[in-house]
Amino acid sequence: MKHASRPDLLQGTLDLLILRTVALQPMHGWGISQRIQQVSRDVLRVNQGSLYPALHRLEGAGFIDSEWGSTDANRQAKFYRITASGRRRLVEETENWRRMAEAIGRVLSVV
Amino acid sequence: MWSRFRRALRSIAHRREREGELDREIRFHLEMEMSENRKSGMGATEAREAALRRFGGVDQVKEEVRDSWGVRFLDTLLQDVRFALRNLRKNPGFAGVVLLTLALGIGANTAMFSVINGVLLRSLPYANGDHIVVLTQPAKGIQADDVGFSPKEIADYRAQSRTLDQVVEYHSMSFNLFGRGEAQRVQTGVVSANFFDVLGVRPLHGRTFVDKDDVAGAEPVLVLSHEYFQKAFGGDPSIVGQVFEMNDKPHTVIGVLPPFPQYPNDNDVYMPSSACPFRSNPRTVDNRQARMLNAFGRLKPGSTVEQAQSDVSLIASQLAAAYPKDYPATDGMSARAASLKEELVETARPTILVLFGTTAFVLLLVCANVANLMLARASGRERELSLRMALGAGRARLVRQLLTESAILSVLGGALGLLFALFVREMLVGFVEKFTPRAHEIAMDGRVLLFALGSSLVTGLLFGLVPALANRPVLATSINSGGRSGVGARLSFGTRNALIVSQVAISFILLTGAGLMLRSFLRLERVDPGFDPENVLAVSVPLNWSKYTDTKSRIGFFRPLMEEVATRPGVTSVAMTQSVPLNESQPFNVAFVVEGQAVAPDAPKPQVDFEVVSQEFFKTIGAPLLRGRAFTDQDHDTAPKVVLVNDVMVRHHFQGVEPVGHRISLDGGDEWRTIVGVVGNVKQFTLDKASTEQVYIPFLQAPRVGTLLVRTSGDPWGLVGPIREIVRRLDEKQPIGRVRTLEQVRSETLASPRLTAILIGLFALLALIITTAGIVGVVSYSVSQRTQEIGVRMALGADRATVVRMVLRQGLMPVLIGLAAGMVGALALTKLIARLLFDVAPTDPVTFAAVVLSLVAAAALACWQPARRAAGIEPMLALRSD
Predict the structure, then answer these.
(1) Which member of A46, A102, B686, B712 has the lowest number of beta carbons within 10 Å of its beta carbon?
(2) A5 shares contact with chain B (CB less than 8 Å)
(3) Is residue A11 within 8 angstroms of chain B, CB to CB?
(4) Interface contact flag, A52 B32, Cβ < 8 Å
């Protein structure tokens, strides 16, 4: 028995983005949301309400780890870091995403 | 599932902590967002509101996060548990039957495991227990497992061994202790000073022995066993330092031992070897053949039992070479070292393992039975389950629901079983005591609790999975059809028959085992002991040997004792003997020669056990005199030496020759004794072995006796008081020892086979009852399922006899398959109990036939009622019923 409820596309996408972001370096939740926004040039504005449940779910599944640490401004924050199984998951999900994007692209170009 | 469960548990355990972290994490996020908003020019309030708006409901987010912690899983688990409990409460009869069978099954297993744990698995409760070896000197030539060690030999092994860092000696005698009120008979362990240090036993009060206690002429000292300390002195520690009289010398109590299993036998007190009048006698000390001691050794660090074995073998052969006179080649003496732990439980192991196997089978049977009950109920709940599926419950959720129910049942059953195991502990200890001194270590420790929990869970999984999986084909169709003839019922019916097959097979094995044990016990009980045990009282009168040192003084005590007792009303005859028949010890074999029979010098001398008995002995115990005469008053000290022999000895050594009148010698030809008669074979040691060859020496010529035997015309127990009185009148410091009737003696030798047979028999009976109930359930169910079909058959002309035959045939089919499987299993398994059987083959055809008959009869009985009900079906009613 894996996840009880099948993650919808949006949620799956959010997981992928989070994993991708923390794969670069450990980051706290706010940083992750800012980062996704910046990198996507403000196209993707992360729904902050679903960010934290997603982070905790990924942590529970063992894809990311967390640890309290200090920010540059010397404040305490909870930093998330990708785990080995998280990296494997990231590779898989990226591949899936590419395939799906390609497929959707093909469908759109035909119509 | 497991990791989720763990997470759920963790989230409960660290809930507060995690809540705090989540708070801080969200607050940090909001503050960052606010400061960002302020940078872009918002006011404080505005920035805060914008941040909160963007975050989208802090409480909602928290709730979602909590969900991801796995709390939801726990919620559904609680829901399942509540639902299951409600279901069970709705069916108290079902729940009661299941809980009772589970409690019996798990309880019996837990109880037997507590025995295995306490007796076979745990380390010995001596600090050095696992490093202690028992040394023995077997003598193959004279068929002796152990002839014991002499003090000189102990010293040699102590000095020469390279694998043992200590060698201690031990023997046990009974002495009279005098000092508080009446004289008491105490069993006394006589040990070397280092005995308790080597075992690793620390005193509870005072001290144990030190080297200076164990030198010639040392002040005699005593250490009390914990049992005796409690029994005789009420556990009062001020007993240390008190002085008692023993063997006519003052003995000072210096310490009290903690409770620990005593080996080779239980003692009331311990004394150093220098305090024992026999052991310290120069004739014992200087005689290499005065083999009266047990020996133990402690392995040096790094040495193994195998190394110790080759070490002592080497010493034995060196001693034999150095003192050929003391180690006659014909005796075939050697030395053996064995782990104490093994020796302690050697006789207990087979019985304990057989009983554990029995309870394991019972538990399997219980699983099959409960699975069957669950299945029957699940079939009854088909419509409920289908409905719940239709309303959106996932299959996994339903399976989980069923498993939750079985887990609850099994854990509750296990808890009851644990109570059951606690309840029977005393009884089990009493039973195991007959086999091993470790019986008192049986306790409910953590390992036993773990076993109970583990077996409960495995049981629950076994009987829970069967119905959960067998119900797989339950589809929504059964709602539509609305009838009782749903698809699922048919399929699970095959499973139910398979369960009956396994129950019958297991019952077959258990019944066969029980039958064999019972037949073995009955055979043993019917063994003729060679005497008539009814109405004979045996009173141990342990004379103080250090006071009554010579023949004259001993006869001067015993003769008036016998004469006085004989005058009591109801007494028909009185005798003295060295030891009672059936005393469960080992023969005290001596080599003998028959005058005129040549013995090759290198052949082993024939061995015979000897007993000292008074004139009326055979009359008193009711053993026949076959030829010649019994002992008389004329066979006294100065008269010609005489002897009686038993029938097996005559058959072995006097083939066809009249033995009466021949002379034999028991001391290599120094003294010759004339055979004056032949007596019947009295079982001197056990019922389950052939009679030993026996010679009897008249008490007047060797007054080494200690038990008074009194045959009475009525109940002999009334004589105990008068006998005690007579003994005290003869010597006020002389106690009487153990009092039993010969009937009790005989019954005690039968106690352990009887208890084993009863225990296995009870389990087998339980199995038979459960199985019969199971068959009734399955057959009744099938009849009720097929009411319509049977109605149709009858409407089409089938008569009632045909219907009965059909039900019987279908009901008995799985029983017959089970019988065949059980027969194969029993043939393979009963070999394992062959060692416990007396005079019965493990493949005893009578037992097997009886088991087949009783199982078939029980099964036919079980099918009969449902078959009659089937025959009573009214076709028209049946056709309209659905």
Answers:
(1) A102
(2) no
(3) no
(4) no
